[in-house]
Amino acid sequence: MSKLAIIIPYYNFDFFEKTIQSVAAQTNQKFNLYIGNDASPNNPIPIIEKYLKNGDYHYFDYQENVGGKNLALQWKRILKNVQEEWFQILGDDDVIPLDFVENFYHSLNELLDKKINVLKFPIKIINENDTYIRESSFQKKIINRLDFLMSRLDYTALSSLSENIFRTESYLKFKIKEFPLAWHSDDCMIFEYAENNQILYCEDTFVMVRMSGKNISSTDTHSSQKAKATYNFFEYIIQNHYKKFNSLQKKIIIKNFKKHLYYSQYKINIKTLITICFDNFVEGLKLLKYLF
After folding, report:
1. What is the pLDDT of residue 223?
2. Which of 127, 139, 176, 210 is the most buried (most CB within 10 A)?
């Protein structure tokens, strides 16, 4: 029985064949593939049928483009159909090695024994020519979720959506936060789904994440929306999870939040300010200048 769903939210055609090819070539075929066409102008069926037979995948030909409003809407639309206990959302231009699914099953017992809801893999960033640009990895097999989030809030680690496998129960419980462009939505998923503070890190394989200049992550054309999403992300974490961090981590969060407020010219939300004041009144007073 397949315990894993691989979800591909499809819109961009340029590198889709390499994505499908990598999924079809898995040494372990115990997964169900879900492809959701987000009203793309390019029909993906010829590519899909080149590598997969009917019955090897679930295909949803959506008539309304929702990813253009927010990518999280497209993720959630496909997730409604998923019955498996675990899922991966794989970008339509990203690539998984032959042993990716195999390594999920190798990790499954540890995930279940330790009641861990997130399995994370290293990233290899590739360009449009499949050339490696950069690699990123964590140093521990078990990553504390607070440490993970700090690495994202202070920009010391790379992380994206494709290199994670999530427990479906966690999605049903916490859903997906719809920050603009779904920017930082994946960070929030990883953090909130890992509610026992543990993320299992598997270094036995990796995921190739593409920075081609044609996707949101690798362009500056949405800089204002990314700034808004980062602001919303900081506000959400402070309002909902601030008490979970130690005093040093809180200082780093506030430092980076102030820096973002300064450059983006956004104003601090009163609820956020009150949350900080209740924890550290002096620190809260320093943020008053960002209220008006």
Report:
1. 87
2. 210
Helix (H, G, I), strand (E, B) or coil at 171: helix
Q: Where are the beta strands (DSSP E) in 155-224?
A: 164-167, 198-201, 207-210
Cα angle: 209, vertex 211, 217; to 5 degrees: 95
Concatenating the DSSP letter of every residue in 104-139 gives: HHHHHHHHHHTT--EEE--EEEE-TTS-EEEEE--S
Nearest-10 crossing angle of helices 185-193, 223-241: 20
Calculate the average pLDDT of the chain.
94
Contact 16, 92 (CB under 8 A): yes
Distance in angstroms (rounded) separating the CA atoms of residues 243 and 255: 16
Question: Global pTM?
Answer: 0.94
Task: Write the CB contacts of 140 (distance below 8 Å, at least 6 apart in sequence).
Answer: 201
218 pLDDT band, cuts 50/70/90, is: very low
- Do residues 51 and 42 lie in contact, with contact meaning Cβ atoms separated by under 8 Å? no
Q: What is the pLDDT of residue 221?
A: 62
Round to whole Å and give the CA distance between 196 and 118.
Answer: 10
Task: Transcribe 9-25 into DSSP letters.
Answer: EE---TTHHHHHHHHHT
Rounded to the nearest angstrom, the gap between the alpha carbon of residue 252 and the centroid of all alpha carbons in its chain is 22
CA 92 centroid distance within chain: 14
How far apart are the C-alpha atoms of 240 and 243, rounded to whole Å? 8
CA distances in angstroms from 91 to 20, 120, 230, 240, 289, listed in the order given: 10, 15, 21, 29, 40
